[in-house]
Amino acid sequence: MGVSGAGSNLRALVEAARRGALRAEVVLVFADRDCLALAWALEQGIDTALVPGGRDDVLLPTLDAARPDLVVLAGYMRLVGPRVLAAFEGRIVNTHPSLLPAFPGAHAVRDALVAGVRVTGVTIHRVDATLDGGPILAQAAVPVLPGEDESTLRDRLKAVEHRLLPRTVASLLAAPAAEAPRPRRALLSVSDKRGLGQLARGLHALGFELVSTGGTARTLRAEGLPVTDVAAVTGFPEMLDGRVKTLHPAIHAGILADLGSDDHRRQLEDAGIDPFELVVVNLYPFAEAAARPGIGFDDLVEEIDIGGPALVRAAAKNHASVVIVSSPARYGAVLEALETGAATQGLRAALAVEAFAHTAAYDARIAQELPSRMHEAGVALPSEPGLPGSGDPFPPLLPLVLERVERLRYGENPHQPAARYRRAGSTSADGPFATGEPPLQGKPLSYNNVLDASAAAAIARLLSGPAVVVVKHNNPCGAAERPTLLEAWRAALAGDPVSAFGGVVALTRVIDRALAEAVIEQFLEVVVAPGFDDESRHVLAGRPNLRLVVDPTIAADEPPGQPGWTSIRSAGGAVLVGVPDVLQDDPAEWVNPSSRPPTAGELRDLDLAWRLVRAVTSNAIVIVRDGMEIGLGSGQTSRVDAARQAVARARAIHGDGALRGASAASDAFFPFADGIEVLLEAGVSAIVQPGGSVRDAEAVAAVERAGATMLCTGRRHFRH
Q1: Any catalytic annotation for residue 473?
Q2: Residue 132: left if φ>0, alpha if ψ -120 to 50, beta else—which one?
Q3: Greatest CA separation for the chain
Q4: Where are the domains of the chain?
Q5: What is the rounded end-to-end Cα distance, in angstroms, of the chain?
Q6: Catalytic residue among 107, 248, 264, 317
Q7: The CATH number fitting domain 2-173, selected from 3.30.460.80, 3.30.70.270, 3.30.420.40, 3.40.50.170
Q8: Architecture of the domain defined by 184-370
Q9: What is the pLDDT of residue 268?
Q10: Which of 123, 247, 559, 648 could form a disulfide with 584 if both were Cys (CB 3.0 to 4.6 A apart)?
């Protein structure tokens, strides 16, 4: 190799040889003057020769002694003499910083700028007796940017030379009947830098050329690794504030080419494009940006990745030829596979599926976030389904992003497999399991634990002051509001101590030591609370299997706000989407169709019963006395049976006297007076129900005859 300067092309060829991309090695570096390139070659253990003035009679025997297959001139500032030309005819190549035959000579870059051309480039050509006039082997165009000077243009041309020269040399050195060695190339462009250095070092050791851009390239260089900039591959610098980097045929053709197709390989060869074996891409952190307080709409839009998803999808589509890695969690397995030779087709396919899921989730998150952000930014959105301000909150297409939290031991029953997921973008305000955080202690959560704990937390949000609810199979079997949390715990447990065994409890205040000592006396599956102080944690650790779940929203005494559509259920192949029933009703708006108003105590109990009954499986009746649930009828096929069940349970647990002066709530209207009569005959003195039956007059008459009172809310709370 002939050099005269710093030797950047020499370094590129040596690096290509190290990667196995040449199937050759540099055997001699010669120069016409003392230069940095000679010193560097000597450090690498490469033979060197100083040929002052590039004398023909000295250079020829020097080359003959090295016996090279090819002589490469890269920045060599001397004309080759006739003796060397004759001895190595057709085996001397030169790299020149212009698109020959334009701008030959030593000042090609300057001449191109003076001429005002919009495009220049790099040429690799055979050397003959003419000045930069031998047969052209390869060329790559490079645009001249507005206002560019000689130094910056030269640097960009050199970056292209560093890619084009090794590729051309590899092709020339290939056996006549063989293809040039296929270089191992990896494209790396990641926002999440975890594990990047280790992966890149492993790829470098395996002979991969590392192609990268932006922050990823800077990280790799900081690791001391050689990097080929994407701009050197495309010939174009980043544009539009970085919005356009990799969107170029020189990149995407290298990813999308089917290497099993002779035609595709020929097209790559004709275009001077090397294929990529590996693409490592993860996307701009849009979700994290959306969660950043105070971020403006324009700044959020800039966090929408365009080039990244295009790279991921292209590589995933062509997974038969390219390995796509979209998660740092996969780096180890992929590197291990590459160390054994190549990734298996099965691994490639699995990574492709994961990659498509990655981009689908990314786009879905954007589609979910943008409408409200546009509205907040003052964009005048049309009144279309799913857009803010529309009377129809349900969009025509609803992309859901669900992130798996864990595989559960089983589902509702041991023969049913199950897993727990969370909706991307959910926060603790959406429920105790929205963030995916594990319990503070205890065994792993089961499918039924999650259902019951979610139900318990939802009910607890509806309770006032220090309060406790015990849930079994999604229904509140005990609940109470009291001046202190310990009193509320005792009252809730007393509501149905048998059903509470193995149940789930939610409490509206932070648990202290005294309450923890009371709780561990009862066998429970899960305890949900806004917090657990240190002393309570010490006590509860004595029950290591007891799961402790934190839900800070339970402690909020203000009623829940207006929810979005977050209720999603599958049913017979359909998916039902709706607004959850969480808004509290205002007792001040209830209507009394009876002649007697409720007492203050009855009104408090009616309010609590009404808040509890909405959480009970329909048909539902809840009986409350003195701020404590004493009777429950749930899941009955008739309302009168629900009333009978609630009365029977109250009598069985608390005796006949407990029902006298009690208050009852029904989740829907009484279609007949029989259900009301069951309650009144048992001693219930106050009833709350939605009203609206064609036989409401009969219900009122029954209440009047008993001297009781009845309030109508005008709102039903079915729960299926």
Answers
A1: yes
A2: left
A3: 129
A4: 2-173, 184-370, 402-555, 587-712
A5: 81
A6: 317
A7: 3.40.50.170
A8: 3-Layer(aba) Sandwich (3.40)
A9: 84
A10: 559
Residue 1 identity: M
User: Cα–Cα–Cα angle for 710, 715, 716, nearest 5°?
Assistant: 95
10-residue block means of pLDDT along the chain (720 residues)? Answer: 91 88 88 92 92 90 92 89 91 94 93 93 93 90 90 91 90 68 85 90 90 89 88 79 81 89 85 88 85 87 87 93 92 90 88 92 87 87 86 86 89 93 82 88 92 93 94 94 96 94 95 95 95 95 94 76 70 86 88 95 96 93 96 94 96 92 95 95 96 93 96 92
Residue 140 near residue 235 (C-beta atoms within 8 A): yes
Rounded Cα–Cα distance for residues 638 and 225 (Å)? 74
Residue tagged active-site, from 107, 264, 375, 473: 473
DSSP state of 619: S
Give the separation between CA 311 and CA 71, rounded to whole angstroms: 38
Would residue 717 show up in a list of annotated catalytic residues for this protein? Answer: no
Q: What pLDDT was estimated at residue 180? A: 55
Contact 58, 51 (CB under 8 A): yes
- Supply the DSSP string of 175-237, one letter for each residue: -TTSPPPPPEEEEEE-S--TTHHHHHHHHHHTTEEEEE-HHHHHHHHHTT---EEHHHHHS--
Query: CA 272 to CA 140: how far, in whole Å?
Result: 8
Residue 429: other Cβ atoms inside 10 A: 14
Q: Name the residue with tokens 């429920």.
A: 431
- pTM score > 0.85 for this model? no
CATH of domain 587-712: 3.40.140.20
Q: For helices 8-18 and 36-43, what crossing angle results, to 10°?
A: 20
**C-alpha to C-alpha distances, 206 to 20, 311, 331, 342, 701, nearest whole angstrom:** 9, 23, 14, 11, 88
